[in-house]
Amino acid sequence: MSKSAKLRPLSPEDVQRTIRSALDDAVNFMESELQPPRALADAYYQGRTQLPVTKGRSAVIVTSVRDGVRSVIPSIARIFTQTDTVAEFFSDNEEDEKLCSDATLFVNRVYDRYGGYSALIQASTDALKARIGVIKVWMEKKTVPVHSYKSIETSEPDDAEMAAVESSATGGADGGPDGGADGGPETGMGMTMEPPRNPMGRLTEKSPEAEVYTSTSSRDIWHLDPIPPEEFIVDPNAVDFTNFQVIAHRRNITIGAAVALGFDYEVLSGLASPDSTILIERDQRRDYVYDNVDNVASSDPTSRLVLLSEAYIWMDADGDGIPELRRIMCGGLNYEVLSDEPVNYLPFAIFKSELQPHVFHPISLAEDLIQDQDAQTAMLRSIIDNAAFVNSPRTEVNETQVNLDDVQNGEIGAIIRVRQMGQINELTTPSSAAFNLPVLQYLQEVSEKRTGITKLNQGLDPDALQSTAKVAAAAAVSASDARIEMMARNIGETGVKSLFFCILRVAMYELSKPQQVRTPEGYSTVNPKWWHDKISARVNVGLGSGRIDEKKMTLQSMLQLQLQTVQTLGPANPLCSWTNVRESLANILRLSGIHNTTAYFPYVPPEQVQALDAQQKQSSQAAQQQQVQQLQGQMALQKQQADAMTAMSQAEKQKSELKYQTDMQALRQKSGAEVQKLQAEIAALKAKSTIELTKTYLQDDRERLASELTFESNMAKIGVQEKEITAAAASAEASAEATKPSNGAMQ
């Protein structure tokens, strides 16, 4: 583009040419590249085959495609119904926590109330059979007439009639399925009511017996509509939702239905002509053709069919250099533009069971099984034909010698008339079952490896596990389940996530008032007007984390730890509260197939749990204080007893010491007296000896010597006696010291 060239806004003619060219390319791509393999897979799903049938031979068909698809669907249904919260929103920003919680609650309620399960199963079946499945999320603003009746005999309706009228006009006593947010005009999730001017409405019919009054109620009805594959088109260069030029929903609807969407009848009547391609593929899928529209349209012009295309295209319509997403409604086979407006989101959720890189329409499971169905059908037919030939062999006859009518009569015991014996011979056909059955078994094993659908995960065969260890059997089941769980994960990551974001965005841009949602804990009010879609979503199912019994065992083990924590730290501790325990119990019930968990474990508000915890803490503190007081009293009594024992010990010690001192004093006195006595005796003996010695000196020497000897002997004896007395005194004193009580013994 040259510098002098400038972008300009597109004129209506430019928009018309652009959208017509884009839709023509997408339709041509669909009809030439997508419709043939899709129609072939659908034909095989219905039990057909391209193999020719020979007259008189077996025409049996092995339904491998249908069996494969139907075997995967129950696993998907089980995986996505294990929890009431199929998917949840989360964000890395702390300020988005309330938004994610409210959005998760609201979107899951919409999914549950408006046929989310049915849409999920149909879209998953389309993904397995027709490459992709599509769910369109939109909200219908519908005006519903509400009739009330009044008898002619009464001038005013009775109270019961007025209550019935008011209940009908407000969508129920509680304001609709989920109740109103504030009891006013808003009646709940996606439902509003326009209060009539007259409570009875306007008079619309009258008979001699009664009058009919009609009022209107405006309701926002959610639609989670699975789109047939032939009605969804995308440009050939599309890779995913972020890289496409045009995506459109083309459908044949009646003019009346199009008028109800807000389009002009005169414009639509000039465009009335259905798309035959859509009708042909629809009839092939139905396996029957029944179309009575022409007969009805002859009497009701609004019943005529018109092709209505809802196209989403990236287009720079305002000339600012930035393409914006626009929603263009087109009517007729030439795609006449009926409306053109910018939008903020795509209302389509795309389900894929396979993730083929850089391809919008991956190869489906049904296409993988087409060749298996043909091969197994051909092999089974040959086995059946061979068995028929073995059981009923062909016959060789001489027609000139045998009555052919008798030969063709297959009755038991029938007579065959012949002119000559030996003119009838049976052509024996050898049995080939011994060779063909292993081939058929091999083909079945190849099909099982391709799809992951085996006898083990379809119901255990006792013969298959007679000599199989438990670990080996579990490994075989896990290996076969991995393929199915991979398909389920792909469906969850592509379809379920995009479905929940579609619901979120429709609520953001179509609902302008707060909505009230019923939860197990009561009623909660959310306001989608303040939401944004800069958050993430996760599919809240246990894909790849074990089977149901393993999950239940894990939850039960965790429940024991939670109960121990609550018992130890109280029900309102920051680590694990009663809410966590209740959630574990609820998940165990859901895995067991019981979803009404509030009937078994009612919701307890956090305030009540905190009050109960505070009450238990007060009771515990009072009990602890009482125990402390009791312990203090016991300790005081024990101290008094110990003090008394100490005083008694001290008294006994003093008494023992006094007795010891008295005994020692007496012993000393006794010992001193004995010593004095001995000393006196020694002194007397010395004196006597001295006198005698003196006398001896006066005698002659012999006598003197004898006396000296006698004196020395006596003195030696006296020395021995002194030593004995001294030793006795020391021994007595040592004995007294030994009998003296010690301090430890006294205590």
Instruction: Please report the total strand number as a whole number.
Output: 17
Individual helix count: 18
Distance between the termini: 115 Å
**Helical percentage:** 40-55%
| Mean of residue pLDDT values | 79
Strand order of the largest sheet: 7-8-9-10-11
Main pleated sheet: 5 strands, antiparallel
Indicate the radius of gyration in whole angstroms. Answer: 54 Å
Shape: elongated
The SS-based structural class is alpha+beta
Q: Report the portion of residues in β strands.
A: 15-25%
Task: Pick out the low-confidence regions.
Answer: 167-188, 190-196, 459-477, 743-747
Descriptive notes:
Helices cover 52% and strands 15% of the residues. The protein is of the alpha+beta class and 747 residues long. β5 and β6 (210-227) form a beta hairpin. α10 runs antiparallel to α12 (433-451). The N and C termini lie far apart (115 Å).
